[in-house]
């Protein structure tokens, strides 16, 4: 009972992880824009407003404070949540070969050594191990259950597999929606920046008399920088999302395959 408040606090912290991370990243993005990109050393004469950019950082700064910090935040979010998902999925994959793990578990069940099969799940330390551990608990219970016939026991074991799997998959898919959203939103934000930059360029061209070349080039530069940042962030987010969904599908298939093998083993043992 004493550890319950701590567990509740941990779960609350996890539920707000994405929101807290996004807020921090936005703050970091604005810091990078004004302090790092806007440093005097990045511009001729040390003037970030009127001086020409002398390097790549200054050129990005010239994209304007309206859109560039948001695009930087999008890029940082994609990287942050991609790293978080990679670590989570890597840990969920567990240790060693999944195929070898399933073979060892089936071999132990064939000899009736359920404790050894449970020990294998502890060594695997992944989502598959967690699911199979839950199934083995039901497996052992059903072997001594005399209130159900064979078909009912197999159905109960199948339901246990589905329930255990449904508890593991949400953990793997968490925060993927953020990466998917960024894949679309980054392009749109970049396009918005492009439109704003082109509006500035056309405004300079429409000015009375000879157009100001500096204002004209500044608007075009802003448009191109925003386009590049938006496309770059979106491309990385799409690649990351596809990679993670493929990894989750592979892991989900392995869980189903391992569970089906256990059910088959149970089916052959129960008369």
Explain what this protein looks like in three dimensions.
The chain is built from 10 helices and no strands. The protein is mostly helical. The protein has helices at 4-15, 17-37, 56-61, 68-92, 98-110, 114-124, 127-143, 150-173, 176-206, 213-269. Mean pLDDT is 83; it is low at 1-8. Helix content is 80%, strand content 0%. The protein starts with a helix and ends with a helix. The protein has a domain at 96-271.
Which regions are unreliable across 5 or more consecutive residues at pLDDT < 50? 1-8
Quickly give the structural class.
mainly alpha
Oligomer: single chain
Q: Tell me the fraction of residues in β-strands, as a range.
A: under 5%
What is the makeup of the main sheet? none
Q: Estimate the helix proportion, in percent.
A: over 70%
| Tally of DSSP helical segments | 10
Gross morphology? rod-shaped
Distance between the termini: 43 Å
Mean pLDDT comes to 83
Kindly provide the radius of gyration, computed on alpha-carbon positions and rounded to a whole number of angstroms: 28 Å
The topology string of helices and strands comes to: HHHHHHHHHH
Number of strand segments: 0
Supply the key terms.
single chain; 271 residues; mainly alpha; rod-shaped; disordered N terminus
Q: TL;DR of this structure?
A:
The protein has 271 residues and is mainly alpha-helical. It contains ten helices and no strands.
